[in-house]
Amino acid sequence: MPSITRPAALVRQGSLKLYATSVTVRELKLPGFYQINKLDPDGDGPGFQRLLNLGRAKKLTDYLLDGQVEGDAFLPTSLFLATSKDIPFNASTNSITFDVRDVGPFNVVDGQHRIAGLVAAADKNPVLLDFEVPVNVAIGLDDVSQMCHFLIVNTTQRSVDKAVEQQIIARLSGMVDIEDMPTIPRWIRRQVEKGEDARALTVAKYLNTDSNSPWLNKIRMANDEAVDATINQKSFVNSIKKYIFSVNNPLADASFDVNRPKMLSNYWKAIVELLVNPENEKSSIIFKTNGVDLFHISSATVFLYLANRRDFKKDTIKEVLRRGFANLSGENIGMSSPEWWERGSVASGLNTAGVRKLANALSQAINVQDGAGDIVL
Predict the structure, then answer these.
(1) Which region holds residue 344: left if phi is over 0, alpha if psi is between -120 and 50, else beta?
(2) Tens digits of per-residue pLDDT, 112-143?
(3) For the chain, which residues make up each domain, given as ranges?
């Protein structure tokens, strides 16, 4: 495989060293020229990219094929490639020379859909093998830095799927004490250092994969295409961060980090046994955002009682919830019935204010004291 020499401009941005250059589609297709580290649905792999949208790539392919016929195919947006290796710069000729076997494969930090569209178009029309595409090549970037730059590009310039963002921030949280972290936007760094994404994802993964969990395979994780899922990772994790990690919820305490997933599994088992008709489980709003938010809000009251007793068993949780349902009054009584939670019922039409109102009513009902032996909070 011959070395590649391309005209280039050296660009320095702080400690980041970039070459602004171009490559042909023929070079992109060289064995080992690039790789796309996709984010695995379970979040445990090394990747950080979202899954390829085949429809989006095909639109570009069709455009390039049509544009080539007319002689006006146009793709000015730069790809962003990265390597952990060094590529020397020839200042006298303003060029770079590299052997793909030595510095490749380049990681695609940004531009995977453009590459897929270009390669597919060239496969159909070989003339496009000589089509040049602008490229920014970052050198000397380790994996952590590449993840950070992916976040920067995709959150400051255009939106990346929130679930993918949560997965990356969670990984960075696990690396913050063992890796040198490049400069990243302050709001991202705050999320990384706070570690809530990592802690919330631990809960979501446990509930979604444990064979005894009522949430088994019901949470659509980042880059997952599970057809039986009832809620996506973004909504579930955001609910945990907002309500389980609230300052008034005992479960927010770091001392519960190890046992929190199992404790919440017991909580949801109790809820499901009380409110979900097994024949209509897939349609129950309990497993939708309204149900998740309502019972995560109420969990602060439930787990305050449980923490005081140091008893987090499922049967104890059921008794606490039964007490609350028995003390509900007026229009709130309906939420204690499985039928109320079925698709098309009242629960389906709740807005955020309605969810919070009902959750507060349940919490107050749990706190009602009406005789000796009652629960004291």
Answers:
(1) left
(2) 888 999 999 999 999 999 999 999 998 887 77
(3) 4-141, 214-367
